[in-house]
Amino acid sequence: MILLLLACAGGSRGELSSDVVSIRVTPEDSVLEVRNGQPADLSFQAFATNPDGEEAPLDLVSWSSSNLSVGEMDPDGWFQSVDSNGGVTEIVATHLDVQGSVLLTIVYRDELLLDGLPESLVQAWPDTGASLGGPELSYPESGVRVPRNVEGLPFIWDEGGAGRVYRLRFQSNITDISVYTQQADYRATSELWAQIAAANRSGSVQVSVTSAAWDGSSVTDLQAGFPIEVQVDRLDARGSVLYWATSERGILRLPFGSAEPELFWEGQDGAQCVGCHVVSGDDMVVSHDGINGVFSVVDISDPEDPVQVVDPQDNKRFTFKTVSPDGRYILGAGQGQLTLYNLETGSTVGERDIEGYVTMPDWSPDGQDLVMVRVQQGHKDDWGFEYGEIIQVPVLDDGRLGNPEVLVASDGQNNLYYPAYSPDGAWVAYNRAQGAAYANSNAQLWLSSRDGQIQLPLDAANQGGGLQNSYPRWGPLPDDDVLWLAFSSKRQLPWTTFRMPQIWLTAIDPALLEQDQDPSSPAFWLPGQDVESDNHLPVWWDR
């Protein structure tokens, strides 16, 4: 059989008159390098093979690129890259039902010069020849996972001495970004994470620091530290974290993508604790004066102008509360008793009796169940009890509560408290510690499956003991790859000499959950906080 090529309209060289059994694309797997403002292009050619094994150029094909975030193909086989990020794409040539393809890797390179350092430093800096024993990254911890839009995540490393310059390098198969600085820290922008995660479903980047002596013309005495790995989620984290800050005597709001928190709500005359707060849709419910507090409801439909719509009333008191998923009711717990309130008016609907002393309720996202703490023995209050167990209570059609079931039983040693449903309703995060619930330095983060069959400590997020890892609260669902969990912790920040509770975040991997493995990643500090403030009670709002 002979391969015949006939002229065709539109400038193509021909069409294959016999059957095409395979298509070969050239060049084979290739790499393009791009820089900001400097896209790259590459021409591809298709070759057809007939049943007799004969091969000839084939122009009558349609071209496509599998990853439009890195570039596009034109009808003639030219690929034009973007100039903002790297990635991997499959270049496909199709003739009828036959396809041929190659992989094209686009590597994004960039150099950022800080502190007035000259461009000549980049040219003088060698990529090889560094000895070990250089600066080590003290923060973040290797294996940390961050959202694509986190702003101002700090990287902190050991000082190398006077006259040293540093190269902080972010490397993957699609990214090679270097930051040159004279400081021993750098705060990464959300733009950098977007470049890393643009084409990866869950991008992983190696981060390393090299120090050197720089005399203005030459680089000597290169010393490299061990690299760490950072995972960047392919999607942005949604919404804001609302947390209680003692420095402001109010609730601060820190939207993702911002490195500057804003005062969101404060107590009357700035003298009240309003930190026990929950959010549902356009409403926030706060308790005033801590454990003795009356409650109010705040309309937060306009985040720039929250308005109190239900005034505090002295005869309606509770400490912990939850809001029904349909936004109709508040269920408050005070002095071991549950009471249902109308969200719009604050009026009492009625008490909801549960055997035992109960506190810290949380409503499931589907509205079918409540999870809460039942104090088993010893001192009984809403805060400082010592023997709590986690129970789950069905919500009946008529609004009454069914018979409770023990979700996580007390073993007579550990105290279980602060339960919270995940946004998909499949898991409950809670605290486990020996001793009183309030400000317990030994508090650890745990997860329970909704049926109670799986109990997992979040070892990576806990980072050992003595850190007061408390009050876990979930972020809204971004995708199927990750669940985000916020909590308060006293772990040491590298640039501080003291431990104040701050808001930290960890990524929860659902795939590992299904394998009964620790699903957490090392936690990262929520950037933008005042490190001298006592920050608690992170509530993740989807706005």
Give a brief outline of the structure.
4% of the residues lie in helices and 45% in strands.
What does this molecule look like?
By secondary structure, the chain is mostly beta strands. The protein is built from four helices and 44 strands. Strands 2, 6, 9, 10, 11, 13, 15, 16, 18, 19 and 20 form an eleven-stranded mixed β-sheet that branches. Residues 1-17 have low confidence and may be disordered.
Question: What's the CATH H-level homologous superfamily of the domain at 114-233?
Answer: Immunoglobulins
Number of strands: 44
Spatial extent as radius of gyration: 29 Å
Which regions contain 5 or more consecutive residues with pLDDT less than 50? 1-17
Specify the biggest β-sheet.
Answer: 11 strands, mixed
CATH architecture annotation name of the domain at 114-233: Sandwich
Give the distance, in angstroms, between the N- and C-terminal Cα atoms.
66 Å
User: Could you tell me the strand content as a percent range?
Assistant: over 45%
CATH class of the domain at 114-233: Mainly Beta
Q: Enter the CATH topology name of the domain at 114-233.
A: Immunoglobulin-like
Helix/strand layout:
Blueprint: E1 22-26, E2 30-34, E3 41-43, E4 45-49, E5 55-57, E6 62-65, E7 71-73, E8 78-81, E9 87-95, E10 98-113, H1 120-124, E11 131-132, E12 137-139, E13 144-146, E14 153-157, E15 164-171, E16 175-181, E17 185-188, H2 190-197, E18 202-214, E19 219-224, E20 228-233, E21 240-245, E22 250-255, E23 262-266, E24 277-280, E25 283-287, E26 295-299, E27 307-310, E28 320-323, E29 329-334, E30 337-342, E31 348-352, E32 357-363, E33 369-375, E34 388-394, E35 405-408, E36 415-421, E37 427-433, E38 444-449, E39 455-457, H3 459-462, E40 470-474, E41 483-489, E42 502-508, H4 510-514, E43 524-525, E44 535-541
Parallel strand pairs: 2-10, 10-16, 11-19, 13-20
Antiparallel strand pairs: 1-4, 3-8, 4-5, 6-9, 7-8, 9-10, 12-14, 14-17, 15-16, 15-18, 18-19, 18-20, 21-22, 21-44, 22-23, 24-25, 25-26, 26-27, 28-29, 29-30, 30-31, 32-33, 33-34, 34-35, 36-37, 37-38, 38-39, 40-41, 41-42, 42-43
